[in-house]
Write a sequence for this structure.
């Protein structure tokens, strides 16, 4: 019975690892989208990331239930390894390797997330600067006319930019 639960736990953890690998790939895709400025593709990738995290959360809940049946106090990898080590040293070694793999994936995902955040901030900064320069250009043109659309500069002909009388 315990061996079956250990196998089930191993399968669940493998699914979690696959989910995190998928997240890493999606974050890499997101980075490329941000670099290339393809804002229309961003929503697609972000929704895939959210869905993948939901799947990982569901798998994590299943892992939590299996650890309860094994009388493991929490569903952390460390507690799982310590509990399994008492019954199956080889399985404990496998789980330790899986823990290392999850830790490495987490580090890479964190770096990608940080890069993506900085790219997003930079994109917002550039967008704001573009809008500011557009507004400055529009303001300087608007200063040449009054609220009736008449040219107010002295060195130009008095004419309206809006023809009201024909």
């Amino acid at each position: 019975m315990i061996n079956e639960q250990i196998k089930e736990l191993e399968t669940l953890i493998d699914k979690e690892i696959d989910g995190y690998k998928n997240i890493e790939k999606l974050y890499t895709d997101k980075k490329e989208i941000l670099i290339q400025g393809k804002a229309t593709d961003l929503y697609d990738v972000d929704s895939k990331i959210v869905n993948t995290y939901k799947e990982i959360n569901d798998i994590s809940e299943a892992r939590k239930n299996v650890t309860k049946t094994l009388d493991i106090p929490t569903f952390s990898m460390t507690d799982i390894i310590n509990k399994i080590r008492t019954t199956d040293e080889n399985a404990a070694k496998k789980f330790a390797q899986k823990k290392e793999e999850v830790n490495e994936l987490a580090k890479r995902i964190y770096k990608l997330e940080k890069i993506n955040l900085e790219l997003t901030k930079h994109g917002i900064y550039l967008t704001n600067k573009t809008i500011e320069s557009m507004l400055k250009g529009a303001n300087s043109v608007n200063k040449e006319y009054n609220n009736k659309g008449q040219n107010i500069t002295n060195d130009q002909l008095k004419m309206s930019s809006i023809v009201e009388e024909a």
